[in-house]
From TrEMBL:
Keywords: Signal. It holds the Pfam family DctP. Gene3D superfamilies: Bacterial extracellular solute-binding protein, family 7. The keyword Signal applies. It comes from Neoaquamicrobium microcysteis. One of its GO terms (biological process) is transmembrane transport. This is C4-dicarboxylate ABC transporter.
Length: 324
């Protein structure tokens, strides 16, 4: 079965799927590195509840925070093999299967939620959804789960890329992340997010780049109290599952899942927007130092990442969609 386009989803009315539309119960287990206090997790709970209601309980969503099912890469492989699992994951990790998706994690591509939402609900993005299915057997349910802008978190003040020289900075292992960290002056050190707190505590790494909700939820400020607001990546993530599992469902159930994933992603992202100011206040009250800087040196330092990764031509197209 071919992928269902967002245009079709939004145009079509949904027929209730309870009763004979499903021959058996279906369960989808969703893994996320986030804690239960993260605004995005609230969106996942809304998705779980909405799917249960619209399917009459025939489709069950189970949530696994704190990477309980394993690292994102492992869950992606499970999904690729046809397991009924999903993961909240960034485009950088999917770029190994479909290269264009990596640009979603490129530095200073867009700021805030609205612009990047334009990109991940566009016809161009839906083409990428289809290419990913063909390349790896993954199905994107929606990709509008915005986690905020990522900042630099260190044990000492930072104002320019030169201040990060020699700093071992944790980042996901995808090329778009490692090249960005390298361009910012640090030494990229890939590791699972669940290991970051202890790695900072034991001086295995010196710094991390992370969005404020995840920083607060993981209490990283306890071991790295300096937060420099570089905003170098606007972290947009998606709910990605198995295409084989997705294709085993009736068409109306597929439509329902993508509709509800999109709606819950919007709810989660708006919740993130609304929570940022309070999270900053909470971090400062807990002893963290949050510093606003002129990000121009970081923007200039990372501009070449697009050409290094082969996204130079695509950058203008994507940014024009973001600006619509």
């Amino acid at each position: 079965m071919r992928f269902v386009s967002f245009t079709s989803i939004l145009a079509a009315g949904f027929v209730a799927v309870a009763g004979p539309a499903l021959a058996a119960d279906h369960t989808l287990s969703i893994n996320t590195a986030l804690t239960t206090t993260d605004p995005l997790y609230k969106g996942l709970e809304s998705f779980r509840d909405a799917v249960a209601e619209r399917s009459g309980g025939a489709v069950e969503i189970k949530l696994f925070p704190n990477s309980q099912l394993g690292p994102d890469e492992d869950v992606l492989e499970q999904a690729r093999a046809g397991a009924p699992v999903a993961v909240i994951v960034d485009g950088g990790r999917l770029a190994v299967f479909q290269n264009e998706l990596g640009i979603l994690g490129a530095p200073y591509l867009a700021s805030g939620y609205d612009g990047i939402r334009n990109v991940v609900t566009s016809d161009l993005f839906e083409e990428w959804v289809g290419k990913l299915r063909e390349a790896s057997g993954h199905q994107i349910l929606s990709f509008n789960w915005w986690q905020g802008e990522r900042h630099v978190v260190t044990d000492k003040p930072v104002a320019t890329p030169a201040d990060l020289s020699g700093s071992r900075m944790r980042t996901p292992g995808a090329p778009v992340w490692t090249e960005t960290v390298k361009a910012m002056g640090a030494t990229p050190t890939p590791m699972p997010y669940a290991e970051v707190y202890s790695a900072l505590q034991q001086n295995v790494i010196d710094s991390v780049e992370v969005q404020l909700p995840a920083l607060w939820g993981s209490k990283l400020h306890e071991v790295a109290p300096h937060v420099t607001k570089t905003g170098h990546i606007s972290l947009i993530t998606g709910m990605v599952t198995s295409a084989a599992w997705f294709d085993s469902l009736p068409a109306d159930v597929q439509t329902m899942l993508r509709e509800e994933a999109l709606a819950a992603g919007d709810e989660a992202s708006r919740g993130t927007e609304a929570a940022l100011a309070q999270i900053e206040a909470d971090l400062e009250a807990a002893g963290a130092t949050i510093t606003e800087i002129d990000v121009t040196p970081f923007r200039d330092a990372t501009a070449g990442v697009y050409d290094v990764l082969g996204y130079g031509d695509l950058r203008e197209t994507v940014q024009s969609i973001a600006a619509q």
